[in-house]
Specification:
The complex is a heterodimer of chains A (125) and B (192).
Chain A: E1 4-6, E2 14-18, E3 23-30, H1 35-49, E4 56-66, H2 68-86, E5 90-98, H3 102-114, E6 119-124
Parallel strand pairs in A: 3-4, 4-5, 5-6
Antiparallel strand pairs in A: 1-2, 2-3
Chain B: H1 2-24, E1 27-34, H2 37-53, H3 58-78, E2 92-99, E3 103-113, H4 117-129, H5 132-145, H6 157-165, E4 170-175, E5 180-190
Antiparallel strand pairs in B: 1-2, 2-3, 3-5, 4-5
The chains are: A alpha/beta (125), B alpha+beta (192).
């Protein structure tokens, strides 16, 4: 399936969804003008991917900022990954946060509480 | 000629008074008009570069950024449209940022239909009465059960502002007409 590669801007994150290379990552800032149209293709891609997923799926979030509207869409992504895990696939979510950003760390813990999917939190400097 | 000079002098004096008032209230940014996504981007990046220049801590910078975005998006998504009032358009409002010794203050004002007032008041009072743990629970409940509105709001803005600032959301409704009120909201972010 075709990869999605979006270069980040000051208000939208960088996105790489590449099944062949097995890289899935969302990083940067997320406060798009229209969250649904930005995240729509990402969610559709994940639906497609779930039909024939790789043996192991690692999804990386390396966000430095997201607004509350984006937070809802991030949960939608995590719920797709949860579903993938529930269907017997190996899934790991890596939540990277700047080491001095307690709020971003807490946001990760909160998502880990809400969805049932292996979740790893990693601080970076 | 004489009268024009007089008027323009009056106006310039007003500008000076306005400037002094802004200074007295330590207002660093004030805007009236339509709040678009471009405006949101411009104001947040202006605030960011100012805070970076003043070597504000990363935590304070992030919190101010957060609160500004949520407040601006509240206006652009919720300010009501009143066709009979020229100056009150959908998505319009006043936006102000002030910087004091100990805190930043972000203030917004926009017209709303009185029919929404009671629900908003109840929600704000409820959020203000909650401690951190209760707010986290409410946030989780809302993010799971809430649906994105047509305008792309997740219903999480007020909850998030209170969580990020740890301070009550101060608000006020002022009557404009029988059916319309002006909604003012102030959030402060500690600089310590």
């Amino acid at each position: 399936m075709e990869a999605i590669k979006i270069k980040g801007t000051e208000d939208t994150p960088s996105v790489i969804l590449d099944a062949a290379e097995n890289i899935m990552e969302i990083s940067g800032r997320s406060l798009p003008e229209d969250v649904s149209s930005f995240y729509g293709p990402i969610l559709s891609w994940l639906n497609e991917y779930a039909k024939s997923p790789n043996p192991k799926t690692v999804f990386v979030f390396k966000l430095v900022y997201f607004n509350t509207a984006s937070s809802k869409l991030i949960l939608d992504i995590l719920m797709k990954l949860e579903e993938l895990a529930k269907n017997g696939n190996e899934v790991l979510v890596k939540w990277l946060y700047p080491e001095d950003d307690e709020d971003m760390q807490e946001a990760g813990s909160e998502y880990a509480d809400i969805v049932e999917v292996p979740f790893e939190q990693i601080a970076y400097s | 000629m004489e009268s024009i000079k007089k008027d323009s002098k009056g106006f310039l004096e007003f500008v000076y008074e306005f400037y002094k008032t802004m200074k007295a209230h330590e207002i660093s940014l004030v805007y009236e008009g339509e709040i678009t996504h471009q405006i949101t981007k411009a104001f947040t990046s202006l605030a960011e570069s100012n805070m970076a220049k003043e070597e504000e801590s990363g935590t304070v910078q992030r919190k101010v950024f957060h609160v500004m975005v949520e407040c601006l998006q509240n206006i652009s998504k919720h300010a009501d449209d009143f066709a009979d009032n020229d100056f009150l358009y959908s998505g319009r409002g006043i936006f102000m940022v002030s910087k004091g010794e100990t805190e930043y203050t972000v203030t917004t004002g926009n017209a709303i239909d009185n029919s929404k007032m009671k629900d908003m008041q109840e929600m704000l009072d409820r959020i203000n009465s909650m401690d951190k743990e209760e707010l986290n629970e409410l946030y989780k409940k809302q993010i799971k059960e809430g649906r994105l509105s047509d305008k792309g709001g997740a219903g999480l803005g007020f909850i998030d502002i209170k969580r990020k600032t740890g301070k009550p959301l101060e608000y006020h409704f002022l009557p404009i007409s029988e059916n319309i009120s002006f909604f003012l909201l102030t959030s402060s972010i500690s600089r310590e």
